[in-house]
Amino acid sequence: MSKNYPYIHRDLSWLSFNYRLLQEASDKTVPLYERIKFLAIYSANLDEFFRVRVANLKNLIKVGKKTQKILDFEPKELLNEVLSTVNAQQEEFSYILESLITPELKSHDIRILRMKDLKKNQIDFVEDYFNENLIPYVQPLVLMEKKIRPFLNNGALYLVLQLSDEEKPKGEERYGIVKVPSEFQKRFIILPSDKKDRNNIILLDDVIRHCQRFIFPGFTIIDSFSIKLTRDAELYIDDEFEGDLVAKIKKNLTKRNVGPASRLVYDREMPVDVLEVLKDVFELDNFDVLPEGRYHNNSDFFKFPNFGLESLSEKSLAPLQIEELNNGRIFANMQEKDFLLHVPFHSYKPVVNFFEQAAIDPYVTHIKIIQYRVAKKSKIMNALIKAVENGKQVTAFIEIKARFDEAANLEWGEKLEAGGVKVFYSMPGLKVHSKMALIKRCVQGVDEHYAYFSTGNFHEGTAKVYSDLGLFTSNKKLLKECIAIFNYLETKKRPKKAFEHLAVGTFSLKKKLINLVKQEMKNADKGIESSIVLKMNSLEDSEMINLLYDANRKGVKITLIIRGICCIVPGIPGVSDNITAFGVIDRFLEHSRVFIFSNGGDEKIFLSSADWMVRNLHHRIETMIPIFDKKIKKQIKDIIQIQIDDNVKSRRIHYKKNNNYRKSGSDIPVRSQMDTYYYLKKAIEKQNSGQ
């Protein structure tokens, strides 16, 4: 930071965000199966955090003091704080699972059984299940220090066994290791019930624990403990500017799961001497090992059986339909006005329809799309191939550096190329993170253009659970610059004219944001009421944070709605007292980016693909889209105000770091996601009635 302003390191802020998910799992007002889902989300997030962020921290520690001098933090101190925070959270995770979730499951006649709980018929079932399904996968091995060092697969579950060799002198212990094949078999196995309407479950880990005596005949098994190793997920492309980048990524993907350890998690009941043996065998130090509960890979709770008990989950919301985008006249209707889509409250069908209609429309000549993350089974991608079959020219820019989606994007790229689509791949040194598509029609010799801009990806799956905003438009000012972006992606030649309306990452986005904030500061100096509302996933760029602190000192009212990382420190008297920050954690993942500047009464409202992170503002092609339509501007403002008024599912982001729920003086509960759904439903009903 160039100024002496407070700043929370992004990794610590992220841990605070992930803790908010854990808080949801402990909240008894949340339906039981949703709480279990939050445990899974928390765990999946933490796995990725260790594979990426903690692995990076360890690499920074290794580079030495000279290189570390350029950093504004001490990596070893930060790693210590990260591990301490995670340890505390893991203790709470175990408490929530064992003392809150498990008893509540039991109250609904759902029991998670262990070996000691099994009846005779259940024991027979477990042993038969083991013999029929698991024996080929368990891969038993006796550990021999400094002689045998088995390779632990990334994210795989193992049991470490304390063994006593019956043929050796008494007291001489050996150690074995057995794989828990959760990637091949269900983690939660439904057992025969001993009573009507009772549902019994055993975890795959405990099936193997029960049958481990069959695996190591000749040994007495003293005890067993679960472990899991997480590996560095970075691809480490040496030079993106030389050679074939696609080939380099393909080659390095094969190495991702064999990288160095970023952590070994182990059952906290494991004796110290057993842990020391593991550290020695796998060459780990104290920074590499973290205690957890009896079970790991708790992201598997996504697949926890629900036994048809729908009352223990959130009630489903029927996606709202925008008929003007679904009736076969999508392009004619877009000529008349812009449309705002807010998934998952609105159905994602109009986006699919946008491409499917283009594929069969005789006037469509060109389709262009940016693919960052895409569904495994995608109607949109199939529509692109269909369009080629119908004689359209189709272009897809595929970002193959989208972490953990590289392989899927490469696979789709090959399918699209095989189908005749012209495919362009990643640009060296940049990621293309814009979410937009362009369609060209030629009607009686006149070209027409239509675009869809979004805050989220073209992904039919995540559109059901991610809250995102999208704009269907034929506005010529926006379309002209949209064409320029696609031309740049295809030719790599920078546009000759500056972007006037769209703000584009690496070109004009950060500069435009700075100017918008500074204009609010100028207005505040003139005594004009000034305010900024920023909704995004992450706020990390130190230059932008400094600017917001400066705006705070000028008296600009700043409201931040941040789901994830928030490195600014709101609420400090005399420093950030005009800055309010909160995040909403609820049934849908908040993913949209909306920026509102009061601008002296002539409000400027933008949707964007970009968060305010260094990577987004400096190293990515992003788009920020101005909203011109007055009705849509009002709708976005209303939706944001609903979030500001949320007194049920929003938590303060504050210098005290306590993640407290935000409570208002109103007795009327405002749960923003539910209220947004009914606001949009009412708007559709009003329009359909002709009011």
Quickly describe the structure.
It contains 18 helices and 27 strands.
What would your notes on this structure say?
With 691 residues, the protein is an alpha/beta fold. Helices cover 37% and strands 21% of the residues. The chain folds into three domains: 10-235 and 262-312, Polyphosphate kinase middle domain (polyphosphate kinase like, 2-Layer Sandwich), CATH 3.30.1840.10; 323-491, 2-Layer Sandwich (Endonuclease, Chain A), CATH 3.30.870.10; 503-688, 2-Layer Sandwich (Endonuclease, Chain A). The longest helix has 33 residues, at 75-107. The radius of gyration is 27 Å and the shape is globular. The chain starts with 9 loop residues before the first helix and ends with a helix. The mean pLDDT is 92.
For the record, what is the CATH homologous superfamily label of the largest domain? Polyphosphate kinase middle domain
Overall, the morphology is globular
Q: Which percent band covers the strand fraction?
A: 15-25%
Write down the Rg. 27 Å
Taken together, the total number of domains comes to: 3
Going by CATH, the architecture of the largest domain would be: 2-Layer Sandwich
The DSSP helix count reads: 18
Q: Percent of residues in helical segments?
A: 25-40%
Low-confidence stretches: none
CATH topology of the largest domain: polyphosphate kinase like
Distance between the termini: 53 Å
What is the class of the largest domain in the CATH system?
Answer: Alpha Beta
Indicate the structural class: alpha/beta
Total strands: the figure is 27
- Overall mean pLDDT stands at 92
For the largest beta-sheet, the strand count, sense and barrel status come to: 8 strands, mixed
